[in-house]
Amino acid sequence: MSAASSSPTPTPTSYANTPTRSVSVRGVDFVYRELGPGDGVPLILLNHLSAVLDNWDPRVVDGLAARRRVITYDNRGVGASGGSTPDTIEAMALDTVLFVRALGYEQVDLLGLSMGGFIAQVIAAQEPQLIRRVILAGTGPAGGPGIDKVTRLTVKDTLRAVLTRKDPKQYLFFPDTTVGRRAAHAFLDRLKERTDDRDKAISISSFRAQLKAIHRWGLQAPADLSRIHQPVLVANGESDRMVPSENTLDLAARLPKGEIEPLYPGAGHGGIFQYHEVFVPRALEFLEA
């Protein structure tokens, strides 16, 4: 694991060769990767349940980093980051804010996927000066329909994946159709493009803490989304089984400055990966508006 250093380093040309660095957040090392132009407002990517640095689709990261400074990270206790994973979304949001400030940024944009979208909503509401624009993908508001069932669905599909020797993301992120299976295989192949300095897998204890946090989020009273005043772009597949797509429509309708990307046909929870060629230009257009 390579740590951040004061000596200048070449700007990486792709996520596959971006060095893994670390920054101390209240005495705990958080690992991250950073690429793209050095100027402008950085874009922080907030990851999904069980994900580490190597679970971001390189086509999405590289596409965004062609025009924006992009930072991926492992939150507390996840992957190679130190500490213990919190079991509430609010605590994860605080850790993310501390991470951003440890890097020295005064304002950032956020792209939150699934659980990362829960975290992004909390940060946007609580830190209006820190957050400029937000993209929410495959996610929903606190108390949204079906979110409290993520644990049961995840366990069921993980067991199914073990029995069929598949990756659980094939079932959780993509529809069980010919097109969906083809998209899943292409995505999983892309995740293997990085061969050196790969991240550690999430631990069982961290995974359980995340599941507990998601379950609590799903059982909360409906969130007051009027507190989020930043422009927000909302995206998803039309057939999301993990965070039902009706949550995407609800977010767009209730956010004061919400914009919705038309739901991607024949796609599910991993819609922005399946439709990366559509999503990336739209995301850049929104961020640069």
- At the fold tier of CATH, the topology name is Rossmann fold
Largest sheet: 8 strands, mixed
Structural class of the helix and strand makeup?
Answer: alpha/beta
> In sequence order, what are the helices and strands, one letter per element?
EEEHEHEHEHHHHEHEHH
Radius of gyration from the alpha-carbon trace, in angstroms:
17 Å
Rough shape? globular
Instruction: Tell me the strand order in the biggest sheet.
Output: 1-2-4-3-5-6-7-8
Termini gap: 37 Å
Chain oligomer state: single chain
Secondary structure elements and pairings:
Elements: E1 21-25, E2 28-35, E3 43-46, H1 58-65, E4 70-73, H2 89-102, E5 108-113, H3 115-126, E6 131-137, H4 150-164, H5 168-173, H6 178-190, H7 204-219, E7 232-235, H8 246-254, E8 258-260, H9 271-274, H10 276-287
Parallel strand pairs: 3-4, 3-5, 5-6, 6-7, 7-8
Antiparallel strand pairs: 1-2, 2-4
Domain AB hydrolase-1: 42-272
Region (Disordered): 1-20
GO molecular function, one term: hydrolase activity
Polypeptide structure, described:
Residues 1-20 are annotated as: Disordered. Pfam families: Abhydrolase_1. Keywords: Hydrolase. The chain is of the alpha/beta class and 289 residues long. The N and C termini lie far apart (37 Å). Residues 1-8 have low confidence and may be disordered. It is 38% helix and 14% strand. The chain has helices spanning 58-65, 89-102, 115-126, 150-164, 168-173, 178-190, 204-219, 246-254, 271-274, 276-287, and strands spanning 21-25, 28-35, 43-46, 70-73, 108-113, 131-137, 232-235, 258-260. The radius of gyration is 17 Å and the shape is globular. An 8-stranded mixed beta sheet has the order 1-2-4-3-5-6-7-8, with helices on both faces. The chain has one domain (15-287): Alpha/Beta hydrolase fold, catalytic domain (Rossmann fold), CATH 3.40.50.1820. Strand 5, helix 3 and strand 6 (131-137) form a beta-alpha-beta unit. The protein is built from 10 helices and 8 strands.
